[in-house]
Amino acid sequence: MGLIQIDSVNVLVRSQELPLFARLGPHPRSLIADATAAGELFEYWVHEASHVPTEHHHLHRWRMAGDHKWSRYWDLTRRRPGYIDEVLRRIEMDGPIAAGDLSERVGKKGTWWDWDDAKVALEHLFWNGSVSATRRASDFARLYDLTERIVPAHALARPAATEEVARKELLLLAARHHGVATLTDLTDYHRQKNPPCKPLVDELVEDGALQLVQVEGWDKPAYLHPDARRPRHVRACALLSPFDPVCWNRERTERLFGFHYRIEIYTPAPKRVYGYYVLPILWGDSLVGRLDLKADRANGALLVQGAFAEPDVPVGEVATDVAVELMSMARWLGLDRVEVSVRGELAPALRGCLPGS
Q1: For residues 324 and 25, what is the distance between their CA atoms, to the nearest angstrom?
Q2: How far apart are CA 215 and CA 246, in angstroms?
Q3: Which of 340, 300, 336, 337 has the alpha carbon at shortest distance from 319?
Q4: Between the N and C ends of the chain, which has fewer C-beta atoms within 10 Å?
């Protein structure tokens, strides 16, 4: 995958843990934190906030060196010149801090992006690479510290790639992770832009690093990584995070699988079609349905609040495999049982596969 997108929603489990469960099954839930502590991962804005291999740190420094257009940053430097440098000195002297340790907010916090001056300063330092961050276990807050205290010296010693070289490397990584992709698929993976990347993709094709291909049903050219594997069959059953690379690009998901998917967390409850936190079901090489899941930790239950199947799906076969995944997930989360509601076409068969549900 090359990166793991971070999201704070915890109605089931932190979203960044789900791609690992989908691929590894039950595993130590400290895996990401342990890898970060071991210097294998660092956090940065890549595909949104993401865990990224430290061996790729040099590929993101051109972003760190660039100017950003945050009006909050320019407003802060105008109102409080020198404040950001003071925050950096505080971290140098006192060690890792959370935004709340510096907060000067008076009164109730407003909207989701209602940052005070301390948060703006810390996010600017995070953006330009002066500080990096780990996550506090108790509340998932970012703990900001000097980058050299988080990212290993050997990764920082590697010369920064130029913007052109870095963009090319990121495009090749995206192609490797996707297998086959359009230009927009490639650029979206690391949140690049199409205009500066199109000539670079052309160069990669000319050099033989990518192959220009046509995919049946696609109205745009596609690019194939030479190392892409083409299995004869795919035997899989996995529950995907809304932020899993398989489905985070909604247009690609619909183009590949014919699966229309939208996250409804921010949709008012009466207007939701499927539910608050809905996971697509990968079965074989298809997305065949979706589950609205919630961890009822107080009562020790994994709640399936809705189980929906796509048209013409063999519901009984899918339900059998999904039930196994749900029981495995419940045990992984330390929950005693799985409870299935009556909502959705898949629910009756799933209830039949889970006695006592």
Answers
A1: 11
A2: 18
A3: 340
A4: N
272 by DSSP, 3-state: which? coil
Bridge partners, residue 281, by sequence = 239, 289
The H-assigned helical ranges of the chain are 18-24, 31-37, 61-65, 71-79, 83-94, 99-102, 117-127, 153-157, 163-178, 183-189, 194-206, 250-257, 315-332, 347-353
Q: What's the CA gap between 47 and 19, in Å, rounded? A: 14
3-state secondary structure of 143: strand
Taking a C-beta distance cutoff of 8 angstroms, is the pair 104, 115 a contact? no
Instruction: Classify burial at 123, counting beta carbons within 10 Å of its beta carbon; exposed 0-12, middle 13-18, buried 19 or more.
Output: buried
The answer to whether the CB of 41 falls within 8 A of the CB of 53 is yes
* Residue 175 DSSP code: H
Contact between 155 and 54 under an 8 Å Cβ cutoff? The reply is yes
CA atoms within 13 A on the CB side of 248: 24
**CB within 8 Å of 105: residues ≥ 6 apart:** 116
Q: What 3 state SS string does 41-86 have?
A: EEEEEECEEEEEEHHHHHHCHHHHHCCCCCHHHHHHHHHCCCHHHH
Q: Could you tell me which residue, 152 or 234, shows the higher pLDDT?
A: 152
Q: How much of the chain exceeds pLDDT 90, in percent?
A: 87
Beta carbons of 279 and 18 less than 8 angstroms apart: yes
CB 90 within 8 A of CB 97: yes
pLDDT at residue 111 greater than cutoff 80: no
Q: How confident is the model at residue 67 (pLDDT cuts 50, 70, 90)?
A: confident
Mean pLDDT over residues 140-161, rounded? Answer: 96
Q: How far is CA 189 from the centre of its chain?
A: 10
For 80, 90, 103, the CA distances from 118, given in Å and listed in that order, are 11, 12, 6
Q: Give the three-class secondary structure for 8.
A: coil
pLDDT recorded at residue 131: 97
* Residue pair 97/143 in contact by the 8 Å Cβ criterion: yes
On whether the pTM is more than 0.90, the answer is yes
